[in-house]
Structure formats: C-alpha cells, structure tokens
Design the sequence.
C-alpha cells in the first residue's frame, strides 16, 4: 500500500478514528485507499472522475480549501486530517489553522511534502522550479514539494500547544501533528524570517523538522494522544 494511506490507516486503527478530511484529493490515490468509514475530500479541480471516488460515507467537495472551511459548520470535527493542497507555506499554514478549528484533543493532522529534496523541489512555484532545473541542466528527481517546510517552522515557534514529528525514510516526507504541550523555545521567532527561509536555511536547521523513522514517529504520537 502507498505510504500515505498506510500511515493514515495505521493511525486510524490505533486511535479508533471515524472521520477523515483530505485537503487536495487530486487523483484520489490516497483518498480511495483510506479505510476510515466517514471520509470528506476537498479539491477545486479533481484529476479523476468524482463518480469513480464516490461511495457510501464519502463526501467530495469541489471547492478551494478556503471556501470549504469558510462554509463548514462550526460543530464539524474530524479525527484525522490530511493536508496535501497547494504546496505553498501561506496556503498550507492557513489550512492548518482552519483544520485546528475543526479537530479535537485527540485528532491527528498529517502535512504532506514537508522535506524538499533539492533546491528546485523547494521552489513554491512549480513552473519556476522546473524552469530553473532546466536552466541549470540539473539531473535527478523532478519532485515538487514547494515551501511547505516553513509550516513546520511556524508550528515550532508559534504553536506551543502542538507537538509533531516528521517521517524520515525513503517514502514521502510528511509531518504528523497532535495537541500536546511542547516546551519548545522559538528558533526564529519571526513569521517574516520564516517566510524568507531558503532550502539552504532548511539544511542548516534540519533538527527543527524532528525527523525520525516512521514507526518510531507513530509510536511517539500514539503514546501522547492515548494517555
């Protein structure tokens, strides 16, 4: 099974999750394999037929994440949220803030693409990243992560009520977030400085991501939320 649904399903089984929200369904590769009964997917432009993803307990919304959250009933909460929308710091951070309004004390939030693998994959504009790679005649992966990694720095410095870990390994880098007092001291203490971080700044501050092997990360999270 693919890494995202594998992780989500393991967490869902361990926490008894019944409701799931996915921001950025795209082709439905994760949404379709998640085993949580009550699923909501949001995407402004699906790259798959909605009919192919539809089924009992599945709600598919064609809208931006901002539009979806703006119209969501205040009482609606989700057990697990997967954020895989627009790969920019601003949008991902806003999605996180909105998700926190619709989650509870034991909810889990997974943020996709939090560890870019090259300076090109960290470019928030996917077209510009591809152009720069071509201009530099750079070999290797054409992966795109954007500057989502800055969201982790924002959590680290400005959300002391949240804890997190980032999956380290061959599979796609993702950061798992849950509610727990952190006791962290700010690293940059400035949203402006965070917004200006480069790929090389990330390399100099990799410890902020709190990377660890997948199963170790999951065990740490579950130990906290199942207390």
Sequence:
């Amino acid at each position: 099974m693919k890494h995202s649904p594998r992780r989500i399903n393991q967490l869902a089984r361990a926490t008894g999750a019944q409701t799931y929200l996915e921001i950025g369904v795209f082709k439905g590769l994760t949404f379709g394999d998640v085993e949580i009964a009550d699923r909501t997917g949001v995407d402004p432009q699906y790259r798959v037929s909605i009919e192919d993803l539809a089924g009992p307990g599945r709600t598919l919304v064609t809208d931006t994440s901002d539009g979806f959250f703006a119209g969501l009933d205040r009482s609606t909460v989700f057990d697990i949220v997967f954020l895989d929308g627009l790969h920019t710091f601003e949008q991902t951070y806003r999605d996180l803030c909105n998700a926190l309004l619709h989650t509870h004390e034991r909810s889990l939030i997974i943020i996709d693409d939090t560890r870019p693998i090259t300076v090109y994959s960290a470019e928030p504009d996917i077209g510009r990243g591809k152009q720069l790679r071509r201009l530099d005649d750079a070999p290797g992966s054409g992966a795109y992560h954007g500057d989502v990694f800055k969201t982790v720095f924002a959590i680290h410095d400005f959300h002391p009520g949240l804890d997190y870990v980032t999956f380290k390994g061959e599979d796609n880098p993702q950061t798992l977030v849950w509610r727990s007092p952190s006791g962290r001291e700010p690293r940059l203490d400035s949203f402006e400085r965070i917004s200006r971080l480069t790929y090389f700044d990330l390399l100099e501050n990799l410890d902020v991501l709190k990377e660890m092997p997948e199963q170790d990360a999951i065990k740490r999270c579950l130990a906290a939320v199942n207390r």
In short: The chain has a mean pLDDT of 91. The first strand starts at residue 19 and ends at 23.
